[in-house]
Specification:
The complex is a heterodimer of chains A (about 625) and B (about 425).
Chain A lengths: L1 E8 L3 H12 L4 E5 L13 E3 L3 H10 L4 H8 E7 L9 E6 L1 H13 L4 E4 L2 E7 L2 E7 L3 E9 L8 E4 L2 E4 L9 H9 L4 E8 L2 E2 L10 E3 L23 E5 L2 H10 L21 H7 L7 E6 L7 E4 L7 H8 L10 E3 L2 E8 L16 E3 L9 H19 L13 H12 L23 H11 L5 H22 L3 E6 L5 E9 H4 L7 H4 L7 H31 L17 H10 L4 H6 L5 H20 L1
Parallel strand pairs in A: 1-2, 1-9, 2-6, 9-20
Antiparallel strand pairs in A: 3-5, 4-5, 7-8, 8-9, 10-11, 10-19, 12-19, 13-18, 14-15, 15-16, 16-17, 21-22
Chain B lengths: L3 E4 L8 E7 L7 H5 L10 E7 L2 E11 L10 E7 L2 H13 L3 E2 L4 H8 L9 H9 L14 H26 L11 H17 L2 E3 H5 L2 E6 L6 H9 L17 E7 L2 E7 L5 E2 L2 E2 L1 H13 L2 E6 L4 H11 L4 E5 L14 E2 L8 H15 L7 E3 L1 H22 L4 H19 L7 H8 L5
Parallel strand pairs in B: 1-6, 7-16, 8-10, 8-13, 13-14, 14-15
Antiparallel strand pairs in B: 1-2, 2-5, 3-4, 4-5, 9-10, 11-12
The chains are: A alpha+beta (about 625), B alpha/beta (about 425).
Chain lengths: ~625, ~425
Amino acid sequence: MYKFDVIVIGGGHAGAEAAFSIDRAGLSCALITMDESKVGQMSCNPAIGGLGKSHIVREIDAMGGLMAIATDMSGIQYRTLNTRKGDAVQALRVQCDRDLYKKAVQKILNKTNIKIISEEVVDLIISKNSVLGVITKDKRYLSKKTILTTGTFLNGKMYTGRDVISGGRTGEQPSIPLSKKLYGLKLPMGRLKTGTPARIKLSSIDTSKMEDQPGDTPTPWMSISNPPKKHQTQLSCFITRTNKKTHEIIKNNIHLSAMYSGEIQGIGPRYCPSIEDKIFKFQNKDSHQIFIEPEGVKKDLVYPNGISTSLPKETQAEFIRSIKGMENSEITEYGYAVEYDFVDPRSLEKTLQLNSLSNLYLAGQINGTTGYEEAAAQGLIAGINASNNIKKQEEFILDRSESYIGVMLDDLTSHGITEPYRMFTSRAEHRLLLSQNNAQQRLLMKARKIGMVDKETETKFLENERKYKDFVEQTLKKTKTNYFINKKNTKTKLNENKSLYKLLSRNDVNEKKLFKTNQTNEKHYQRAITEIKYSGYIAKQLREINKTKKQNNKKIPKNINYKEISGLSNEVREKLINNKPKTIGGANQIEGITPAALNLILIHIKKGELLKENA
Amino acid sequence: MSVVYALATPAAKSAICIFRVSGDGCFDDIAGLFGLDGFNPRTFYLVDMKNGERLVDRVGLILFKGPNSYTGEDSFEVYAHGSLGIMSLISDTFDSHGYSEAPPGEFTKRAFLNDKISLNEAESLSDLIDSTSSDEVFLSGSSLFGDLSNRLAEYSERVNLIRIRVEGEIDFSEEGEDFMDDGLLDDLQKVKEDFESFVSLCANKRDISQKKNILLVGPTNSGKSSIFNRLVGYERAIVTDRPGTTRDMISSEAFFETSVFSISDTAGMRKTDDVVEERGIEISLNQMSEADLVLGVFENYSEDMISFLEKTCGSNKFLSVQNKIDINKADVKKYDCCVSAKSGDGFKELRQEIASFFNETGVKNEKDFMVRDRHVKIFMSVTKNLEQAIQGLNNKKTLELVAEDLKNARSDLDELIGRKFSDSLLGDIFSSFCIGK
Ligand SMILES: Cc1cc2nc3c(=O)[nH]c(=O)nc-3n(C[C@H](O)[C@H](O)[C@H](O)COP(=O)(O)OP(=O)(O)OC[C@H]3O[C@@H](n4cnc5c(N)ncnc54)[C@H](O)[C@@H]3O)c2cc1C
Ligand SMILES: Nc1nc2c(ncn2[C@@H]2O[C@H](COP(=O)(O)OP(=O)(O)OP(=O)(O)O)[C@@H](O)[C@H]2O)c(=O)[nH]1
Ligand SMILES: [Mg+2]
């Protein structure tokens, strides 16, 4: 019999991050996963970041997680997206070497005290509604907390045309007994699906016929807190397009697609449609973009981003070879759709602890999300909360207004999902506050307080903050000028001397010409420009945030009688009676409490107040 | 509970409007308001509604004795003519009796508090429940109903369609979709223009209350007071055949041609050798500068006095009126208008003349909707946000700020309609564009 503080089941992105945070908290942790050589495996596209996602990665980085560092240890193309838009919606996307990424994660974990165990978990040890450990094929492990991060493996089924294979990922076994166990526990569950395209030999395609897409120069880092010393060799991606011929082939064979033959019931993400979907839903488009992404530095393999499919192998080969530059494609692995179980995240608290069973946390794709970043963030939050709970510390819950992670967890636990959940910047109503570049300012000290960030990183951060303040106060506010160059590159005279800081709030100022930056203050200058430009909008958002906070703080009287409130469903009434929320915000957090129900409660409280007033 | 009143019909020009009044003691004022000494509940009365001495409108009235009423309290309903001016006057009348205007949902709330209805029955309340999530469900009060709200919903939708494209460009810029073709800026400009012309159809209640002032001047005994009485609709001023009857200025409201006017009768000017009596001049000069329109009333033509008056108040706000055309011949060449206060001849034309004077000079245009200060404030904020978004697109300002402006414009509009900003943005993007790698 083995005993750990926390057992993490599954060595994907959620599992790795969860285990890492538990180790940081100084607790003992076992990471039990089917195959330890696959820890940190990227199942699909070997890229980290992108719109809405780089924000999450930087937040993980600010809170002491490993994802950004592993990205930098394996990144082979860095590109900033949305450069023509403002800071809040810019995003770094990093193409990684699939093998190097996995190795980086393993290297980081191997430096810790985490015990990595290659076994399949087949059952949970449960007593009196509390999870006490796990059972693998031939052993039992006890723990105070258990975190389940099994990704797409629960009863995973892979579809290629008419062929159906059981499995969580190409070449890997599904997790069936555990799925049965969860169904047996009567957790609310459902099926989702996602897909992946074929993999092709780089040597078999003609990239000279495609548009070249190099990365940013100078090459940036994903990690702000602790990037490695040196970048990997940087490579280009390429862009090509589907054409009429491609579409014709797919249309003629659509009946063979697993997704169109009705075999798959799981719901797929609308933002990540298969090529079949794209062609059928948008008939007016006769061409779709494909990114050809290298799989690694020394690898003869590319990932054709944009043509995920569940067509039969022959059709895949045929349509791929109709694409410019891909006429002689040698396919090493065919695309497939994967269908898997997920647990309705409304059955979770914001700590990711399951409502109905104590000591069990769920994180990652099992909660209905998709994407490495979304999974990793949940792993981190579940890990922190499991540790905090063991140490009898406060729950660690991030607000929607301070992080994308907070937005995601709130969306998941209060609204559930209707399709695999992916982050987008437009999900964050306070988007302007949440830049990928200010994640540390938002979260670092919070994470430091609970020991997720070391002293050294904190010092470095505070030092940088001090330098920024100095730059604003000493340079921007004290340097004055009586003219500036405007956006049309002509000189504008001023009546009186104005500080650079003042001038930056004007729309017509050419910022590049206003102040010559050097290497040390370039970042500070950019940050100041953004902060000044956003300031009016941010003030408004802060007012809104305070308003909602006030509303959430509205007290529910202790003696409230929910039975008196007509219009509440029995289910909701029971939940309220059991949970005894102290505030409206608290009631709001109970799963299944609708806005209409909240209003009924508010009206009831109000009625009491009014009757008292009028008495 | 205290007496509250509310306009139960949309605050828009229509055939009739209905006001509801409810609260303890609201019957105390029945005699003063409607001249009723006693009444039977649930009976329809046709009465003159008065504000003090002034006639407000001839209205229908039904009274309900609590608890046999919608709210469970004493209450009554007033059916009046549906011009904005009358609505505004009736509100003023209630205000002057110390009644306060009820926020939306107040009547249902009272019904609920008095156990007249259960929450489930309170359909309008349940609308509110669905639409707002604020803790001020009852007290929100910014929302508008009826046609006005439908119009606002249209604008909200139009703003959203543009926002979808901007957000698409932000979140899916890598997809090779053309979210923001050139038409976007034009579309946005059009929304703003349309919204502004819609706003111009909304009159702030305060502006409506600022009546159009008309001043009657002229020689003694020319029939100013008689004309005045006819215009206001009842024997407000004393009329005698003695010159110099009217001493002090009196004013009253009048409604015609769907507008409200404030009409003032003055003491007559005595024609003496030095043209005008000293005192007459003094008063007239003061009043004439305040008035929006001056009507000079004459029985006998006096070129001197007409040109004097025209000069003093400026020809652009002076109309000459010949009175007593029942006994003298009408002289349409010399006067702008010819009437008989005795027979009523020419009054139709006079009223039209007055109304068209106000329309042409644009002193006050006719409006379709009546709104409050708080609405006007939000309208202004919508316009400002749209303008900012346009500026932003013009100056190639960063797009996330344009998106923010559009979001703010939309949530303002939704606040006016009283529904919570519902964000189906991503779904809208996915259904309109091909997204995804
Ligand atoms: C075919 C496919 C296509 C995808 N396409 C995309 C895409 O286009 N874009 C995108 O962003 N994301 C995509 N994803 C999703 C992305 O890969 C996942 O969101 C992410 O990897 C989830 O991380 P996770 O930690 O939750 O789970 P995973 O990375 O799936 O890791 C689960 C781990 O748990 C282990 N495990 C499972 N069951 C047991 C058990 N009983 N006992 C022990 N260990 C167990 C597995 O061995 C595995 O190591 C795709 C995934 C797949 C499979
Ligand atoms: N025949 C006829 N008599 C009229 C008409 N209008 C007014 N009168 C009479 O003229 C006399 C004066 O009328 P008022 O309305 O008092 O005249 P006024 O201009 O207000 O007079 P002062 O207040 O004294 O300046 C009264 O006897 C009215 O009955 C009219 O249209 N026709
Ligand atoms: Mg008179």
